[in-house]
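TA notes, week 10

Several of you asked for a full example with nothing omitted. So below is the full record: structure tokens for the whole chain, then the designed sequence directly under it. When grading your own attempts, check the secondary structure regions first.
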């Protein structure tokens, strides 16, 4: 939920996310299909709150959560609902982008969502005061890093790594993107793509979705247990 990239290459949409989390949090349940509001949703489940940071539906819409909005915020002791449950509420609706316009986010911690819906790409943000929708060009490539873990300077540096990587590999594929998320700045445990901050905060998993024509594949890599899971379904 703390580093997300979007790439449209060679007829494929590839969305990859690294989840950075405190290791005391229970390990997530690998991606499975769930029926929510009569809609099939594929996602890894957070055991603590029951929500998720990454979900895809049967229509090949994908939502990925990052903690924080534009800048790091002051965390309150309690919030009304977890951000991961908000993501599930959105993805299980008839139209996530339409529900975003109506949903009440008062007393919800700030967050950013990358939404790919009906072949359109959006950045959605809640900063504790207002909601924001930014339409993006789905033919281009993007990377996001969480404002709660990475300063503006570091976020810009990580974006530089990403666009330099794409310059070197203009015909990039999903395996190369996974390797970018797994191995970039491997020795940099503080700000690399896979972090380990004093064995307290680590990158726990990498989730990747590949959408090609009417086929959606979700790959999930549990970095702590070194396990890999694959789920594939054909899109309605």
């Amino acid at each position: 939920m703390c580093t997300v990239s979007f790439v449209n290459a060679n007829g494929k949409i590839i969305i990859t996310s690294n989840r950075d989390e405190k290791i005391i949090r229970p390990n997530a349940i690998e991606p499975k299909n769930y029926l929510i509001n009569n809609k099939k949703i594929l996602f890894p489940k957070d055991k603590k709150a029951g929500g998720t940071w990454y979900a895809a539906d049967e229509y090949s819409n994908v939502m990925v959560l990052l903690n924080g909005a534009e800048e790091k915020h002051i965390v309150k002791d309690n919030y009304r609902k977890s951000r991961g449950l908000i993501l599930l509420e959105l993805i299980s609706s008839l139209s996530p982008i339409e529900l975003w316009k109506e949903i009440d986010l008062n007393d919800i911690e700030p967050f950013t969502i990358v939404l790919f819906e009906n072949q359109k790409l959006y950045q959605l943000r809640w900063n504790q005061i207002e909601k924001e929708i930014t339409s993006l060009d789905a033919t281009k490539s993007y990377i996001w890093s969480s404002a709660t873990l990475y300063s503006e300077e570091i976020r810009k540096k990580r974006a530089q790594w990403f666009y330099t990587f794409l310059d070197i590999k203009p015909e990039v594929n999903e395996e190369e993107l996974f390797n970018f998320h797994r191995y970039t700045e491997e020795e940099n445990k503080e700000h690399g793509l896979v972090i380990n901050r004093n064995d307290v905060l680590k990158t726990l998993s990498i989730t990747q979705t590949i959408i090609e024509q009417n086929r959606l594949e979700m790959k999930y890599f549990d970095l702590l247990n070194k396990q890999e899971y694959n789920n594939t379904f054909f899109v309605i």
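The chain has a mean pLDDT of 95. Use that as a sanity check on your answer.
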